Amino acid sequence: YCEEFKSVAREMSYQMCKLGIESTGSEVRYPMPVPLRVQIRIDKDIKENAGVTETGITTGENDIIDTSFNNVPAGIHFCSIQFQANSIDFLKKTMIPHEIQHCVNNIYFNMPIKISKSIEEGLATSAVPQYGEFGKCEKFKIFVKALYDKKLIPLESILKMQEYAKDPELTYAEGYILIDFLLKNGGKDFCESKKKLLDFAKLGTRGTTLFGISKIEPNSVASWEYALQKYYGIRTLKDVTDKVVKDINSQLGSG
Questions:
Q1: What percent of the chain clears pLDDT 90, i.e. is strictly above it?
Q2: Confidence check: pLDDT of 248 > 50
Q3: Which residues are CB-contacts of 250 (< 8 A; sequence separation ≥ 6)?
């Protein structure tokens, strides 16, 4: 497996460069060398492919998730990525872009307030090429079912969600559908549209400040509507929900 794992390392490096430029207009780097640990398990009998990216700042104590960083001094960024896949090909084509987008997000946002889990997962899912075929997307089907069953998570909750909801699949799906809608309405150039999307998420999460004093409360309805108005010309959360549902119905041929 030596050569295959080398090819995985090359793909991770390539995606870090590609997705950084695609998302922000330039390559993204941590402010200092980052301890990185990558664990890979390949087994053709694995039924559920899974990836986990843990990023953060070390405390200097033995209380972070990945114990391989226990001896790293406090205040150092760390990144741990774990892959479990039934083939190297699936790992490279699908899982690496998703997990590396998480790394790009972590570097770009770099805020004390965590970005919405739904937005975070929506961005990571949008990095996977296969999801370009929107009508065939698994996330699309999950969203449509929840829409007709009247079980959608309210947009306010989606945008403010700091942890995973009880239904993680729906969290991923709603995040992806919102991201897809905003990407399509962010301009003709994909990279500019993606950069606008990250700026929107950053502003909605952190709010605005004036002379160090909070002008709009972070991660609030007001901050998200302010960000919507600034970047997309949409006034309210209800307006964007209505537009997303209209777009979905149009794709289904029932709008």
A1: 29
A2: yes
A3: none
* Residue whose entry in the numeric block shows the structure tokens 């690496």: 96
Sign of the alpha-carbon dihedral angle for 137, 141, 144, 146: negative
Q: What amino acid occupies position 238?
A: K
Residue 210 Cα to chain centre, angstroms: 28
What span, in angstroms and rounded, lies between the C-alpha atoms of 39 and 91?
12
Taking the CA atoms of residue 188, residue 192, residue 197 and residue 201 in that order, the dihedral angle to the nearest 10 degrees is -160
Mean residue pLDDT of the chain comes to: 82
Q: Give the total residue count for the chain.
A: 255
- Rounded CA-CA distance 220/159 in Å is 9
Contact in structure between 155 and 240 (CB atoms under 8 Å): yes
User: What type of residue is 207?
Assistant: G
Residues 6 or more apart in contact with residue 33 via CB below 8 angstroms = none
Indicate whether this model's pTM tops 0.85: no
Are the C-beta atoms of 94 and 128 separated by less than 8 Å? yes
What is the rounded distance in angstroms from the CA atom of residue 51 to the CA atom of residue 166? 19
